[in-house]
Amino acid sequence: MPSLYRFELGTRTCALPGCENEFAARSSTHRFCSEECKRLAKWGKRVCRTCGGEFIPESPRQMFCCRDHYRRFMRRVASRAALSREFHTEPIRWNGVPTMILPPKALDKWGFKRDPFSDDPKDFSELFWSRSHTAVRDYIIDGINRVHVRAVSAPVGYGKSFIWLYVADQLRQQQQMGYEIINVHSVDKKGVCANTLLRAIATDLGEATPKFFEPEAFSREIGEILVLRARERKRIVLVVDEAHRIHPDALRAIKVLRDIKAGIQPVLAVVLLGQEELATILARHSNREIGARVKLIQPPPLSIVDGEVRAFIHHLCAVATLDRAPVDAAERDEVPIPFNNSSLDAIEQELGGDVRPDLLTVQSLASHTLYEAHSIHADAADADCVRSARAKLTQGVF
């Protein structure tokens, strides 16, 4: 055998980045000084939970790139726990609990024509618009008009889906502008990948999709279709719901499609809607190409100081009583609601601690409070009903 292919035993340096240990190689495939280094190299890079930077972990359980970030995370956890103890005697675990469906007797007792907290709005006029939701709505519409990539990162129950449904309805009413909306979502565990994205675009544009295709070649074909639609003065809007489950290859596909232009104007406007993980995904170093092109907004919850929690509860009760949206705030405030001032104060206090006062969270606490008032045959909910509902929600008894 030629000496070029003969392996000679000798001293090598470990191939794991960051490990410079030298070891005696036993074979041509012996590249790591220990099984631990070999497992870490196979495990690959990770993203720091604090700064979003990539690093080689020192152990399979490590999720921080340095000790300072770990200590910062632990201080944050300790401060949140202290805040929770200040407002509550036990940790809150009822975020995301479904709303309580009120019995028909309770609805008749308080003059509701439908359930104020469990029934969805009948039309867009019944939606509640806080300052935060209005800003997100205008932010999305402005991004579509400017043909930008806009992302909304908010927790479960914020109201992202209703905001987008309203925006989509407004776009469809502007027929002279020629908007074409492409909705992308995935119901499987794999999330939104490049194939799902490209198939959705082709299907919504009325193009045939081959059963098997190369993403690179197919993205070029879709790019040509988008350019033709742009020349026909069509505005294509790509909406990715559940974008916190998007794959890196789908982000790269969006970046490629965004680089396609009709003249100097991009042909595709993109809206990404997802939970808090979406902000972390876009901040990763590996996604910096698309992250630099995305304008991200992380909206705040309902404001307790500005009375938006009270206004939201009053709005839902007024809609359920009138069976329509109130004309203005004056008509809304004239409708009697089964909450006295002490109960509203207690709800604001419960939502002022470690719980984010989003729409779904407020609905859950308010509906369980009314159910407690109905169970004790009270004319209206008071602070004791709120505390009882919170205790049962915390204990998981509902």
Keywords:
398 residues; 44% helix; flat; disordered N terminus; 11 strands; alpha/beta; two-stranded antiparallel sheet; five-stranded parallel sheet; 4 domains
Give an account of the 3D structure.
The protein has 398 residues and is an alpha/beta fold. It has four domains: 3-44; 47-87; 101-123 and 303-395, no CATH class; 151-296, Rossmann fold (3-Layer(aba) Sandwich), CATH 3.40.50. It has 15 helices and eleven strands. It has helices at residues 35-43, 67-87, 104-109, 131-145, 160-173, 194-204, 215-231, 248-258, 277-283, 288-291, 308-322, 329-334, 341-350, 359-375, 383-395; strands spanning 11-13, 22-24, 46-47, 54-55, 149-153, 179-184, 235-240, 261-262, 265-266, 268-274, 294-297. The strands form four sheets. It has a five-stranded parallel sheet, sandwiched between helices. The termini are far apart.
List the helices and strands and how they pair.
Elements: E1 11-13, E2 22-24, H1 35-43, E3 46-47, E4 54-55, H2 67-87, H3 104-109, H4 131-145, E5 149-153, H5 160-173, E6 179-184, H6 194-204, H7 215-231, E7 235-240, H8 248-258, E8 261-262, E9 265-266, E10 268-274, H9 277-283, H10 288-291, E11 294-297, H11 308-322, H12 329-334, H13 341-350, H14 359-375, H15 383-395
Parallel strand pairs: 5-10, 5-11, 6-7, 7-10
Antiparallel strand pairs: 1-2, 3-4, 8-9
